[in-house]
Design a protein that fits this description.
This protein is mainly alpha-helical and 203 residues long. 43% of the residues lie in helices and 3% in strands. The longest helix is centred in the first third of the chain and has 18 residues.
């Protein structure tokens, strides 16, 4: 598997309440690829990855390359249960079998609208594939961002206190003012240390 990852320019999404029921999951819209620079870079990244795939060393040990995405079908198959365990073990046997069987299985059950040749020779097909396949990778943040008291878009102050709500703080990646250009793990721990110090200091 070859994957291309880039720091997004499309940083402004939104979170909306789905209903008044607190148990209902919110509506999250990431607005991925709203900045054309992200689309251009992902298309270029796919082409570079494809060049690697078509190089002699990789072609010698791989077969039947195809563009794949984390689709709804893949999500359903990824759920750990007895049915999926049996299904994937059966499919794996066929994929490890003769080349003709493997190609049939990929073309019939894996491909979702785009072949490798299509996305390599047709810019419109590649753009459509990238728009369909692009996903965020675990760094969603900033939905309750920290800001000044006069900032109408901020939710918490510098100590994590929720504006307009007594006795409530938020201490996680949602309070970042902007998405960090790094893994969010350490920034969250640093934020937690800073705000815990503020709580202990009575601030």
């Amino acid at each position: 598997m070859i994957t291309f990852v880039n720091k997004t320019y499309s940083e402004t999404g939104q979170v909306k309440l789905a209903s008044r029921d607190y148990r209902s999951e919110p509506i999250v819209e990431f607005n991925l690829l709203s900045d054309k620079r992200d689309l251009d870079r992902l298309m270029a990244g796919f082409r570079k990855a494809a060049v690697l795939q078509m190089s002699a060393p990789l072609k010698a040990v791989t077969d039947n390359p195809f563009p794949a995405s984390y689709s709804d079908r893949v999500r359903r198959i990824g759920v750990v249960n007895a049915k999926n365990r049996i299904l994937t073990s059966i499919v794996a046997q066929f994929l490890d079998g003769p080349a003709a069987v493997r190609k049939f299985m990929i073309d019939t059950f894996v491909l979702e609208g785009f072949t490798f040749d299509q996305v390599m020779t047709d810019d419109d097909a590649l753009e459509a594939f990238v728009r369909k396949a692009a996903i965020g990778v675990w760094h969603a943040s900033c939905s309750c961002r920290m800001g000044r008291a006069d900032d109408p878009m901020s939710v918490v102050d510098k100590a994590g206190r929720v504006k307009g709500v007594q006795g409530l703080r938020i201490v996680d990646a949602s309070i970042f003012p902007v998405v960090p250009c790094a893994n969010t793990n350490f920034p969250v721990m640093m934020t937690s240390e800073k705000i815990s110090d503020a709580i202990l200091a009575g601030q």
